[in-house]
Specification:
The protein is about 60% helix and about 0% strand. The chain is mainly alpha-helical. The protein folds into two domains: about 5-55, no CATH class; about 65-155, DnaA protein, C-terminal DNA-binding domain (Chromosomal Replication Initiator Protein Dnaa, Chain: A, Orthogonal Bundle).
C-alpha cells in the first residue's frame, strides 16, 4: 500500500501476461493471437484449459438436467444407496450414517449438479459452513470408497433397481 499505484499491477488477463499493450500489438502484427479472458491471469494455453474445464462442467450439469436429474432425484438415490431415509439427511444431526449420507448428497449436488453452498444450506436446513464441511467429507468418502455417481444415473427406476457401485 505504501508503494502507491504501480503500473506493473494495472490491468489483468492477457494485458499483464503478455507484457502490456505494446507486446500484444507486436504479436498481432506477426500473426500471433492469444486466447484471453480478463477474469484470468495466465498464458493462452492456461486460459484455454480453464475455459475448457468450465465448459465440460457446464455441459455435464445441463446434460443431467435434460435427463430430469435434479436435487430431489439425487436425494432419493443417496437415500437408497445409503439406506438412510431422506428425512434423516435434512436438518441438523450428528448420527454417523445420516452424516455420511448428507455428505455424499452435498458433494454430488455441488460437483455434479453445480449447486451453490447457500442453496444447499437452505434446502437442507443447515448452515453454509456445515454444508462446506459436508462437501469436503463427501469428497473423501467418494475417494476412499471408490463410489461413482454414474452408477446411480444409469439406473432406470431407482426404487426397483438395486444400485451397484463400482468399488474399484
Amino acid at each position: 500500500m505504501d508503494q502507491g499505484r504501480r503500473l506493473d499491477l494495472i490491468g489483468g488477463g492477457l494485458l499483464r501476461s503478455a507484457g502490456g499493450w505494446q507486446a500484444i500489438e507486436a504479436m498481432r502484427k506477426i500473426g500471433i493471437h492469444q486466447k484471453s479472458d480478463e477474469r484470468m491471469l495466465g498464458d493462452s494455453d492456461f486460459v484455454e484449459e480453464v475455459l475448457s474445464r468450465a465448459k465440460e462442467r457446464l455441459q455435464q450439469k445441463y446434460a443431467l438436467a435434460a435427463r430430469g436429474i435434479g436435487f430431489e432425484q439425487l436425494m432419493q438415490w443417496v437415500s437408497v444407496l445409503t439406506a438412510i431415509p431422506v428425512q434423516a439427511m435434512v436438518g441438523p444431526g450428528k448420527e454417523r450414517q445420516s452424516v455420511r449420507a448428507r455428505s455424499l448428497l452435498c458433494f454430488w449436488a455441488v460437483k455434479e449438479l453445480g449447486m451453490s453452498l447457500i442453496d444447499l444450506a437452505g434446502r437442507l436446513g443447515i448452515s453454509v459452513p456445515t454444508v462446506s464441511v459436508a462437501v469436503q467429507r463427501g469428497m473423501k468418502i467418494v475417494d476412499r470408497e471408490k463410489l461413482e455417481i454414474a452408477a446411480l444415473f444409469e439406473c432406470e427406476n431407482i426404487k426397483g433397481v438395486p444400485i451397484t457401485v463400482n468399488r474399484g
